[in-house]
Design goal:
The protein contains 12 helices and no strands. The protein is mainly α. The longest helix has 30 residues, at 60-89. The protein is globular and about 55 Å long. The chain starts with a helix and ends with a helix. InterPro entries: ABC2_TM, ABC2_TM_bact-type, ABC_2_transport, Nod_factor_ABC_transporter.
Length: 267
């Protein structure tokens, strides 16, 4: 990442370019926020009176909101992957490569601009949640920490998308894989239902799913209805586990993505 620091002006310039493009194509934000907003309305509004979070006595609407927010990060995978693959297909990234800028600049600026779209999507989901009755009950610092965890998770998922876009490049295939990841990691987690009903081995997988950790960490920080105490380390220490998971994902995905980017430049 030293090349990024050395070419900070280039990163800022390309990030600004992506942000201007984002302003002209607001449907990108809609694409990230559409599924989470729909989940807020369908689950939090229509099902809130008929679904009960067992053994907690809490509100199902409060329970699901953290998982819905985590879905924003998962939705970012497809948006970034399609954007990177589209730039590769149009030869835009090849033109950037001919300029005197760090090789990491292109991908870093892409993910930073998409992070702004993720932040706006999180805000849109929050407004929708407030409209259906969701509230936070933690201190200002705790509430802020929860949203910062969401942004960190979204940034990690943006790098998953960047890697996916460079590896697959086919837009139809990317859309299918991104949709599968969204469904798989959302529902094989504690996003929408407690994990107590799962078989032991599957429950362990779901508990260590980063989506579960981020969701439960936000519930704890916001004072929302959370999972029942199970003695499980990732549930009892969700804030710590989510922070470590996000850090590890970013530490692995950024160098790996940059390596794939350098290899693709020699093809």
């Amino acid at each position: 990442m030293s090349s990024v620091l050395a070419h900070g002006g280039d990163v800022a310039a390309l990030t600004g370019r992506h942000l201007r493009h984002l302003r002209r194509t607001p449907e990108k934000i809609i694409g990230v926020a559409l599924t989470p907003v729909a989940m807020v309305v369908i689950l939090g509004y229509l099902f809130a009176t008929v679904v009960e979070v067992k053994n907690t006595g809490g509100s199902y609407r409060e329970y699901i909101m953290a998982g819905v927010f985590a879905q924003v990060g998962l939705s970012c995978i497809g948006i970034t992957a399609i954007g990177v693959a589209g730039d590769l297909g149009k030869g835009l990234i090849d033109r950037f490569r001919s300029l005197p800028m760090g090789r990491a600049t292109v991908l870093v600026s892409h993910t930073l601009a998409d992070l702004a779209a993720a932040a706006l999507s999180i805000a849109l989901v929050a407004v929708t949640g407030l409209a259906v009755g969701w509230r936070v009950h933690g201190s200002f610092l705790e509430n802020l920490t929860g949203f910062l965890l969401l942004l960190g998770f979204a940034y990690a998922m943006l790098w998953v998308g960047a890697l996916l876009g460079m590896v697959m490049r086919n837009l139809e295939a990317i859309s299918g894989v991104a949709a599968l990841l969204l469904v798989l990691f959302s529902f094989l987690s504690s996003s929408f239902m407690p994990l107590t009903g799962l078989p032991g081995w599957l429950r362990a997988v779901a508990e260590w799913n980063p989506v579960s950790a981020v969701s439960e960490a936000c519930r704890q920080l916001w004072g929302n209805t959370g999972a029942t105490a199970t003695g499980s380390f990732p549930v009892e220490n969700a804030v710590l586990v989510s922070a470590i998971s996000i850090g590890l994902l970013i530490a692995v995905l950024i160098p790996l993505s940059l390596r794939v980017y350098r290899i693709s430049a020699t093809r």
